Amino acid sequence: MLNCLHTEKPDSVSIILVNHSSPVVEGREYQLQCDVHNVAPVQFLQLRWYRGQTEVYTHSFSELLPATPVQVSSMLTIVPNRVENGAEYRCEAELHLGPEGPESPPTVQSELLSIAVQYPPDFHSPEEETLEIREGSEVLLNCTAEGNPPPVYFWTSPDLQEKPNDQPVLADASLGPGVYTCTASNILGKKSKQFVIRHKSKGERD
């Protein structure tokens, strides 16, 4: 009978990133650990893992039999990607005591664990761009990339030998015809994109 059991909801529930600290790197495997402290009877415990509001895993302990309060742990493997940068994980311990138990199971939640994800740069528009403009018209070259840490930029072209620029956008009426290469880089990698500028002849229409 349930009323003969000693029931005790957890003193606390804690969550950690095992052997690491945030930030993590996109595509690599990491372990999260959730510890439930001083719970009984543990065989009625269900531990739910959440990323944001989405439940991602449920761990039951029905194979354990001790009736006295114990500490148990659950592991969750994650392989984060850039979309999950800043995602918050938590775990929630519930004692499901059956029909003779309380209508609302005793529940204890962990604090939130926020995971920052680092990833190499990726251009918003990676394809090579060709611009045909009239001489003297302002040229706008945009090679904005997304990355974490935020990328730094380096432009190369014969026309830029004396014009260093570490910004993602070049806007200049003095840029001549030629190939302009923009490289975006951070600690995880780099990518390059080319822009080809051609001048229209006087007889060409816009």
From TrEMBL:
Please name the SMART domains in this protein's record: IG (SM00409), IGc2 (SM00408)
Q: Where is the Ig-like domain?
A: 10-109, 121-198
Give one GO term, molecular function aspect: integrin binding
Return the Pfam families for the record.
Answer: C1-set, Ig_2
| Superkingdom in the source lineage | Eukaryota
Sorted alphabetically, the Gene Ontology BP terms of this entry are: cell adhesion
Q: Which PROSITE patterns match?
A: IG_LIKE (PS50835)
* Record-linked PANTHER family: INTERCELLULAR ADHESION MOLECULE, INTERCELLULAR ADHESION MOLECULE 5
This protein is called what?
Ig-like domain-containing protein
Instruction: Tell me the organism.
Output: Danionella cerebrum
Taxonomy-wise, where does this protein's organism fall, top ranks first? Eukaryota, Metazoa, Chordata, Craniata, Vertebrata
